[in-house]
Each structure stands twice: as C-alpha cells, then as structure tokens.
Amino acid sequence: MVSPTKASLLWVLLLLLAAPPLHAQAGDGKSGGKSIFCCEDDSGRPVCGDVLPSQCYGRAYREMNSQGVTRRHVSAPLTKAELARREAEAKARAEAEERDRIQRRQDEALFETYPTLGAIDEREARAIAEVERSVEGVLAREQELLVQRKRYDEETEFYRGRDLPRDLKSALQVIDSELASHKEFLKQKEGERALIRERFDADRQRYIELLASGHKRR
What we know:
Blueprint: H1 4-18, H2 22-25, E1 36-40, E2 46-49, E3 61-64, E4 70-74, H3 80-113, H4 117-156, H5 166-212
Antiparallel strand pairs: 1-2, 1-3, 3-4
Helix pairs in contact: 4-5
C-alpha cells in the first residue's frame, strides 16, 4: 500500500511531467511558474491539482511551485467553536488590559493625593473629625430635646385620664419626630465613619504594596 506522502509526491511528479517546459512557463509573469495545491481528503489521502481541488475547500492545504518546493501553508478556516473561543480570549485580554490601565491610573492618583504614607493617616483623621463634629452637634441637640420631653411628660401627668391639650400633644409629636430623625442621622453617620475607615485602610494597604514593589512617583 502506497503511503499518503509517497502518493502525494507521485501526483506532483505526474503534474510536473504534464506541465509545459520551464521556458514555456517563463512568460506567465509569476516567480517560480505554476502553482500546485495539495491537501488531504476525508480519508487522509493526498489530493493535488494545479488549481485548488474542491476536496480542499475548507481544509488546510499547501501551495508548491513547479519544482515541488512548498511556497506556503494555508491553515483551515476556523470552526464556529474556535472563532467563539478566539473572540472570548480576545475579550478577556482586552478586559484584563483595561483593568491594568485603570489600576495604573488609580495608583498614580494615590501617590499624587498622598505624598507620604503618613499623609493618609492625617487625611483620615480629618475626615473622621468632621463626622464627629456633626455627631456632637446632634447629640447636644438630642439632650436638649430629651430634657424638654421629660418636662412635657411631667405635664401630661396632670391630664391623666383626659385628652391632652392640642398644643401639648403637638409639641410632643414635634419632639418625637425630631428625636427619630436624629436617631436616623446618627445611624447614617456611623455608616459614614465605617466607610471612611474602610476607604483609608484600602488606600494605606495599596500604598504599602506599591512601596514594597519599588513603585516610585512619576
């Protein structure tokens, strides 16, 4: 049984024998004369021709010159699965490059914002102090409201078992509403304080990592 490689060479030789002499090919205007195209069919057998055989459509093939020297290898077209995988890989690379670009920009901004590691501590302390000042003001007002609420509570004892006067009832409602809003405000400030600490902790950790890696400000 003739091997595929030997059969391919025999087919090339037959084509060469059938081709016109080299001097007759010299006028075709192409370097190296005619081309011969070869591929393997479904059975793995070589198929060759001076034009691309129909069996080679959608397959990898090689192009040879009239002396049997390979000019080029042409890969088979990608399948849908291969195209999808290539697109997914390209998308993943683009996303990774974008993340790296954003991270580099953030790192530069970090060093522009904080000239030293100690500057992070100073900025954090100022941010926390600002929150504390607003909380202190609300707590002070809350104490005033509680004192006033106690005074109204003592007054309501006089009306035990009777309807409260409209102005007293209204005053109690106003105080209770303000105390409720203060409670919600203090809750928000507690969350704000936690976010500030979290943000500066992240900046501090990244700053330390960059310093350890030898990163320098531009």
